[in-house]
Amino acid sequence: MTRHLFLAFVLLLAGIGAASAHSYKLGALEIGHPWARATPPTAPTGGGYLSVKNTGTEPDRLISASSPVAGAVQVHEMKMEGNVMRMRELDGPLEIKPGETVTLAPGGLHLMMMGLKAPLKQGEKIPLTLVFEKAGKIDVELLVEAMGATHNATH
Ligand SMILES: [Cu+2]
Question: Which residues line ion ligand 1, judged by CB < 5 Å?
Fold first, then answer.
């Protein structure tokens, strides 16, 4: 496959993902289109992505995330160290200010599922529990999309 064809294929997959977008409401928060990338067979970690919109008047914070498919779920950020992009766990809880939408997407903030118990397969739905300081707890599902899927343009 040429690079162009491959890109078209990836965009097509991304388009399919967009058509099945799903969202959740929890108090003042709206959680948009949780998804994950399929992982290679022996990958120890997998990325999870979603958006959180705060429609309320007070800030809220994500205090924990967990999933039965992983030993732990962390929030990671991407940081330039010299001229190398590295990811690391966020120093404190992720804050969502009133009126703000925080987007977790490839290349930026993301959920990192550590210690995967099995590879994430395209088409699967992965349970994820999020606990927010004010809004409380919610169970969502991450739709597993293709390995190279990027959603930052549409979500
Ligand atoms: Cu990470």
Answer: 76, 87, 112
